[in-house]
Amino acid sequence: xxxxxxxxxxxxxxxxxxxxxxxxLSDLLPKGCLVSEPRGLVPFETDAFIAYRNVPLAVALPETxxxxxxxxxxxxxxxxxxxxxxxxxxxxxxxIPQSDAVVIGLSKLSRILDVDYANRTATxxxxxxxxxxxxxxxxxxxxxxxxxxxxxxxxxxxxxxxNSGGAHCLKYGVTTNNLxxxxxxxxxxxxIDLGGKALDAPGLDLLGLVCGSEGxxxxxxxxTVRLIAKPEGARPVLFGFQSSEEAGxxxxxxxxxxxxxxxxEFMDKPAIEICEAFAxxxxxxxxxxxxxxxxxxxxxxxxxxxxxxIAIAGRHGVSTIRESQSANEAALIWKGRKSAFGATGRxxxxxxxxxxxxxxxxxxxxxxxxxxxxxxxxxxANVFHAGDGNMxxxxxxxxxxxxxxxxAEEAGNEILKLCVDxxxxxxxxxxxxxxKRDLMLHQFAQVDLDQQMTVRAAFDPHWxxxxxxxxxxxxxxxx
Amino acid sequence: xxxxxxxxxxxxxxxxIHTASIVPAPLVIRGGGTRSLVPNDEQHDVLSSARLxxxxxxxxxxxxxxxxxxxxxxxxxxxLSEKRQMLSFEPSDLRPVLGTTGTPTxxxxxxxxxxxxxxxxxxxxxxxxxxxxxxxxxxxIVKAGGRVMKNxxxxxxxxxxxxxxxxxxxxxxxxxxxLPVPETSATIVISGLDDAQATAAMATALSMSVEVSGAxxxxxxxxxxxxxxxxxxxxxxxLRLEGLSASVAVRSEKLQAAMAAFGLVSTLDPGxxxxxxxxxxxxxxxxxxxxxxxxxxxVAPTAGHQLVxxxxxxxxVDAFYDWQGGLVWLRMEADAEAGLLRHFVKAVGGGHATxxxxxxxxxxxxxILQPEPDAVAALSARIKAKFDPKGIFRSGQVG
Lengths: 479, 399
What we know:
The complex is a heterodimer. Chain A is of the alpha+beta class. Chain A has four domains: about 10-105, 2-Layer Sandwich (Uridine Diphospho-n-acetylenolpyruvylglucosamine Reductase, domain 2), CATH 3.30.43.10; about 110-230, Uridine Diphospho-n-acetylenolpyruvylglucosamine Reductase, domain 3; about 235-340, Alpha-Beta Plaits (2-Layer Sandwich), CATH 3.30.70; about 350-420, 2-Layer Sandwich (Alpha-Beta Plaits), CATH 3.30.70. Chain A contains 17 helices and 18 strands. Chain A is globular. Chain B is of the alpha+beta class. Chain B contains 15 helices and 19 strands. A five-stranded antiparallel β-sheet of chain B has the order 4-5-9-7-8. Chain B has a four-stranded parallel β-sheet with strand order 1-3-2-19, covered by helices on one side. At the A-B interface, strand 9, helix 8, helix 9, helix 11 and helix 17 of A face strand 8, helix 7, strand 10, helix 8 and helix 10 of B.
């Protein structure tokens, strides 16, 4: 049975001075921007990785970059850990605080500052939700490409922290490929601007380091992102198969042939049943595996691409092909897919894995995943971004049964190691957080992690920024 | 007299660097040397990747390749073209412009983040770099990233190494993403627009659902240098479309109809399209056998022409535009005018200017890279020190 994942032990020097710290922080913030009452802190004790929780020391909800800087300067001076938080939708525990930490929440930084269609950029505050950006520019024919399932709630700041992806990243890339600039507050309150409306920036690619750094390098308060002109049309098509292996090999051949749809999503039978019951999307129920393949462009382009994909699917034993006949049907197909996590949560507790594997390994890893979960006496539903090999087995368990929870965690660890051994990685888009932290040495040698940690220290020499995350607690540089 | 080190293995490279770090003795990291600008005046030892060559693995179905850093770019492109795949970011070959010889290497491409016209739709070299192996300044062999498209496992060190111009570490192996070669391509040419009109036309084209994959403006002073003068008379604003034949045909019609409002529209076939965009990528008009100062300037797309207009009032300058106007290739007629140029870059909204060619004396006297704000420069210096604590790596590459 795995040990519970440890947080850094709280600093007594910080806990003992709690009241003073709260009083000082309230001086730095406008009224209503500091949460310190026990009941008020409860919503901040965990994120979407609900198996772990800690009530933080206090929660700051700054309204300006200057306030973020003032808080960081203060925390840095007194060696108080800081945990940045977007909407708290992290699936890896990236936003779970520690009991001696000040949480800096982005929720009040929620304005869209500039939309520039001629340069196709939007500059937004970090607490703006992912979907808000696309909605703000939709009527004018644009969208922001990365689309994590939690896009209704998750913030662009959190997206940058985790380098979030989504279903449509196969064609458009993940956050790092769509991010042009940030305003970043460093550990000591220094405010720097990286990038901007130009396509590249001078000097070292610090923006590339910051994206996906899980709140360890600084706090992003503003971001400039790329907007893309919406395609003329988009059409999701359902392909049903009698086995996951057939579906997996079909994906590999589609990509191998040089066809890149906007999205290729995979669902196995348990996932189909869960999502259909929730969204009534019209998914076929007599198949073992389902691919949602979305093509876009002009009618002619979609027709041509679909013809090729249908021919390939035929070679892999496709048993059902269903094209969406209307915008409404297309929306339902995506609603079912995007509600997969929420719908699963209605029937059981689950932990969601995020390993990525080379496409040639997809079928093998799916089969082994089933074996691992069965061996632990648990159930699994698979729903994931097949086109880029980013797998999301949902391991179902009962959070109130400690043995069940431990088995789920153990099965999850085995699956992630399987992904790494198959030539992949621990996390494609959810981040390491605390969840995968102690598996990092399975993917990296200590010397690899040492190099990452020294770079981390260039940004945050005293390790006050989200310090319990990403890097195993053992093997860290001496303070 | 400087020594040339050409290690045949990663381990050998690590030993050389480890020894240099103990002395400590400076090393200049070199790929093919085709983008070297700053002469090695101080006679530092050179560490070359020339003999770290070869494709390590290539799986066309996964659209990824792993190659040793010194592998000639041409070798890689030849292997890819057999499988109708490509490097979507179109790395440039700057030898004709810089007057350098040698063999461009895949390591050099990533170390300089060399990215061509497709940049705004397919990303830069850095966006396509999935993983690296490198030797840091202490002689340690380190890996970062991996070989899958989506990967947020730990800090993305591959990004900061891309474009670091040999200042942080010696790349030994790179793993990168590939894309299929489009079935066909076409170029729409709009003739007769001035720089400001061209900027408006390109912004309109990129706001349409036609997936333009190249947008450049070639003023009359440079137009004749492209495709042997085959572009129609008058300044040429050029837009590239790529994809399935049926789709390109439909999109081309749509785009031509919209562009007719701006100027006279004509088209180029796939063969001419390939040549034209290759010449734009390689900065053909300024492969002029001179040392006249040449700048690569990156600004917001709509700011490019404003920058050039402002400079024209002050000094002799020639320019053309890629990346919808955001990448300006700027040739000064006499002095490099670094201060003036950077003043105007700031005035039009910010960006950066890199001097990529000039007579030796001017190079020595000019800050060739854009100076960064103090806080950013200090942070970058701290990062450099984490990769290369003894400061042995000397950077001499541009691109």
